[in-house]
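[Q] Does anyone have a clean structure-token version of this?
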Amino acid sequence: MLDRAVLEELLAEARLAPSAHNTQPTRWRLLGDDALLLLEDVTRRLPVADPSGHDVRLSHGAAIEGMSLALGRRGLQIARIERDDGPGDVPGYLPIARLTLAAGGMADRLAVAVAGRHSWRGRFPPADAALHEALGKLAGSPDLAIIPPGPKVSEIAELGDRAGFHFLCQDAHRRELLAWMRLSPRDLRYHRDGLNAEAMALDRVEAAGASLVLGPLFPLLNRLGLAERLTSERAKTETGAIALFHRPIGEDLLETGRAFYRAWLAMAAHGLSACPISVLADWTVSNAILAERYPPPAGRKLVNVFRVGIPSTSSSVRRVRLPVSELVI
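[A] Here you go.
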């Protein structure tokens, strides 16, 4: 079923799956012609923001779903996924899971949204009938709780700023974040990985300012009481709707990551753009507040939060990805 050329064709699509900070930690190895080994590039971990490996495992799950969607287009499917906790035989790469493939796959209804899905970090236009219609189509999703534009979204936007600032006040967190931000097109990694200025909807002046505010000026600005205001995302967040993403408690994070990608693709399929506000779920304080105000269904927990809307027609963002050849081990 598979050889190196076919695998690279599959990865051209599968690599479009999201990952934390666009670190792209997933690598692949052929195991014969009907199996794949998913590995983790350990140099792409986030030891400060993700010390437990929660987010990197979600990223692997999204990559598996991306591979599943690509396989379905070619009449193939993932027949079995087996965890692999072995030490591995290549330094710097850890086995995560073995995927056994089989014939009989079918094109998934969400596959058409893969090419258009992206993270939109700009402002949204005022809510209109088209937005409310699109949000209504998501209302039946078992994984999403939709909060339409209005005062409740403004409250969540304010909470998001509190959560974000909580982490930004940690020097190690800021350094790690800056290490994955590509704020100048002169950065050789600008079109390879991480969060570049275009993806963050920053113009040249804003990008230069971000490097200073999050870098050497942050301690002084914080003492002056200016840092929180300068790092605020509230004005952008409160222009859209909010989608709370829930999943079963105790679920394997690979499955959670697959569902996360599918939820995002479902939004894109209905003409919506979205951006995760992960800090709201990551900070225990904000997570607890949201769980109290918007209780998840029994047996479920809040995993992530999206800001959602219909952007202007100029919202297209080029997605930065590593070359396919670098993803095969």
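[Q] Thanks! Anything notable?
[A] The first strand starts at residue 26 and ends at 30.
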